[in-house]
Design goal:
The chain is mainly alpha-helical. The chain has one domain: Globin-like (Orthogonal Bundle).
Length: about 140
């Protein structure tokens, strides 16, 4: 494998670690596995509420490794998910972390969105927000 391909792999791993570290900082967590899980469940929940086109547009700005996490188990024929209330958005996070009383599902969503907004263009974030009901747009505040 040419060195440039290996460098690309190393770069995406480094970027993924940076995102996970930022989530840990936002959440005041010390567990990278927990931060990874938060990133995964929030990104996939967001993805499923976007149209196929908008989900693809967002993916183009994600590091390669995070893009793989984002698209894992995606069923484009089933999107956008019509469960569009705030409680329905937060529910997969609550379910994933059930039994862990230290996780606030709403704060987890907000923290991941904050990290996402640092790494994705403001225009793309605005496009995403415009596709969502107003109560879900507030996750970025």
């Amino acid at each position: 494998m040419p060195a440039t391909q290996l460098a690309a792999i190393e770069t995406t791993v480094q970027k993924t670690h940076r995102w996970i570290n930022e989530i840990m900082a936002e959440m005041d967590w010390e567990n990278p596995d927990k931060a990874y899980a938060a990133l995964r469940v929030v990104l996939q929940t967001l993805r499923d509420r976007l149209s196929v086109q908008e989900a693809n547009d967002l993916s183009s700005q994600l590091p390669t490794l995070i893009r793989g996490i984002y698209f894992e188990n995606w069923k484009p024929n089933d999107v956008p998910n019509r469960q569009r209330t705030f409680d329905q958005f937060v529910a997969p996070v609550a379910e994933h972390f059930s039994g862990d009383d230290s996780v606030d599902p709403e704060w987890t969503c907000r923290s991941v969105m904050k990290v996402l907004a640092r790494h994705v263009s403001a225009g793309e974030i605005e496009d995403i927000k415009s596709c969502l009901p107003e109560e879900l747009r507030d996750l970025w505040n």
